[in-house]
């Protein structure tokens, strides 16, 4: 503390350290907030349901999304990122149908994001929006060679036998979305001004895709 | 900064301190606000009669006061900012209060105000200092003898 520069340095350093501690306490205060959001997603219409030239199934929906996320906002909230996703299962046990070798079967949950938005203040947190899906609802076809235990249900496997060896040729075709039942989930990420980011979701079940293309 | 070559075990004389200040005038912290030793120039008259900040060092008690004052002020402002920001649910209010607190603390603590110089250092009297001269380092005489032996 013997000189001007020394004291100035001490003040600035201590001030920044205390600022860091204060920000940590602000972030901890977010845990005292118990949010109670509500959300509802209605599929008003399925506009079209087609198979694309590259083999993927694609759906276009008209959605009505209404939600009340105002209880998520605290004094330490900068913005809330919301997105609506459709989730459905894709079972992976094709190999059992064709060979006697038991293969592992994995169940993957595909999550396709249909709409997202950013809410920047508590006043805008209670919203109602009528829109077609912002992003395409496509089931991705897998391409390229895969290990034996990761095939799709709707794969066609061509086994070609030559004189010397057996070749396994696998064609990947996009999973059928026809007649699929899926969940609509509303996810949110609460982005703080300082500290920890919280993320959570609401799952809504009971949505079906039609059996036929239209 | 003027380098004060203190020896912890002997306090230098007041005259000695003035010498270092004169010897390194440019390294004084705000060179324009120099304390004039000879108040002959008219431009420096402005600063002679208003010694708001002493440009020399703080005394020891003052330094301790400055440090504790800084710590207490910063913590108090941080707690106040946190409390007021939380009750008003405004992050911006908290940051503004804290920033104001930091600036105020810097204004109070960093410059060398007079109330940090209440307990002046007791310098040794110049007459007293002359009675106790600085110890001389003994020049070793053995090397001289060796060189004379080699010559022979």
TrEMBL record, chain A:
Entry GO CC: signal peptidase complex
Keywords of the record: Endoplasmic reticulum, Membrane, Signal-anchor, Transmembrane, Transmembrane helix
Superkingdom of this protein's organism: Eukaryota
Any Gene Ontology biological process: protein targeting to ER
Transmembrane segment boundaries: 7-28, 155-174
Lipid bilayer topology: Single-pass type II membrane protein
Compartment(s) of residence: Endoplasmic reticulum membrane
PANTHER family reported for this sequence: MICROSOMAL SIGNAL PEPTIDASE 23 KD SUBUNIT SPC22/23, SIGNAL PEPTIDASE COMPLEX SUBUNIT 3
Chain's role: Essential component of the signal peptidase complex (SPC) which catalyzes the cleavage of N-terminal signal sequences from nascent proteins as they are translocated into the lumen of the endoplasmic reticulum. Essential for the SPC catalytic activity, possibly by stabilizing and positioning the active center of the complex close to the lumenal surface.
Family (UniProt): Belongs to the SPCS3 family.
Protein name: Signal peptidase complex subunit 3
Species name: Zingiber officinale
Lineage, opening ranks: Eukaryota, Viridiplantae, Streptophyta, Embryophyta, Tracheophyta
UniProtKB/TrEMBL annotation, chain B:
Subcellular localization: Endoplasmic reticulum membrane
Basic residues: compositionally biased ranges: 143-152
Region (Disordered): 127-152
Single GO BP term: protein targeting to ER
Record flagged with keyword Transferase: no
First-listed, main subcellular location of the protein, grouped into a coarse class: endoplasmic reticulum
Record-level GO cellular component terms: signal peptidase complex
Membrane-spanning parts: 68-89, 95-116
Membrane topology: Multi-pass membrane protein
Function: Component of the signal peptidase complex (SPC) which catalyzes the cleavage of N-terminal signal sequences from nascent proteins as they are translocated into the lumen of the endoplasmic reticulum. Dispensable for SPC enzymatic activity.
Family, similarity comment: Belongs to the SPCS1 family.
This protein's name: Signal peptidase complex subunit 1
Gene source species: Zingiber officinale
């Amino acid at each position: 503390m013997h000189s001007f520069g020394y004291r100035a340095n001490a003040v600035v350093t201590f001030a920044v350290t205390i600022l860091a501690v204060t920000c940590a306490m602000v972030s901890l205060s977010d845990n005292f907030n118990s949010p109670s959001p509500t959300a509802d997603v209605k599929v008003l219409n399925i506009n079209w349901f087609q198979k694309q030239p590259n083999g993927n199934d694609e759906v276009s929906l008209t959605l009505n999304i209404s939600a009340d996320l105002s209880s998520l906002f605290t004094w330490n909230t900068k913005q809330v990122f919301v997105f609506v996703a459709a989730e459905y299962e894709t079972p992976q046990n094709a190999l059992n149908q064709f060979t006697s070798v038991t293969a592992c079967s994995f169940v993957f949950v595909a999550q396709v994001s249909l709409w997202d938005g950013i809410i920047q203040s508590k006043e805008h947190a209670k919203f109602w929006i009528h829109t077609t899906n912002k992003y395409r609802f496509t089931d991705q076809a897998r391409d390229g060679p895969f290990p034996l235990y990761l095939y799709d249900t709707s794969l066609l496997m061509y086994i070609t036998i030559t004189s010397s060896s057996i070749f396994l040729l696998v064609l990947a075709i996009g999973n059928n979305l026809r007649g699929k039942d899926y969940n609509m989930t509303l996810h949110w990420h609460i982005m703080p001004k300082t500290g920890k980011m919280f993320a959570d979701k609401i799952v809504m079940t009971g949505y079906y895709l039609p059996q036929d293309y239209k | 900064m003027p380098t004060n070559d203190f020896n912890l075990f002997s306090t230098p004389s007041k005259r000695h301190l003035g010498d270092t200040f004169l010897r390194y005038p440019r390294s004084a912290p705000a060179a324009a606000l120099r304390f004039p030793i000879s108040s002959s120039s008219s431009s420096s008259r402005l600063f002679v009669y208003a010694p708001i900040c002493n440009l020399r060092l703080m005394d020891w008690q003052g330094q301790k006061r400055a440090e504790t004052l800084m710590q207490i002020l910063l913590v108090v402002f941080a707690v106040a900012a946190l409390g007021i920001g939380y009750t008003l649910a405004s992050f911006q209010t908290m940051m503004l209060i804290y920033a104001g607190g930091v600036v105020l603390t810097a204004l109070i603590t960093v410059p060398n105000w007079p109330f940090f110089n209440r307990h002046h250092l007791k310098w040794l009297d110049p007459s007293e200092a002359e009675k106790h001269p600085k110890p001389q380092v003994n020049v070793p005489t053995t090397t001289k003898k060796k060189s004379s032996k080699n010559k022979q």
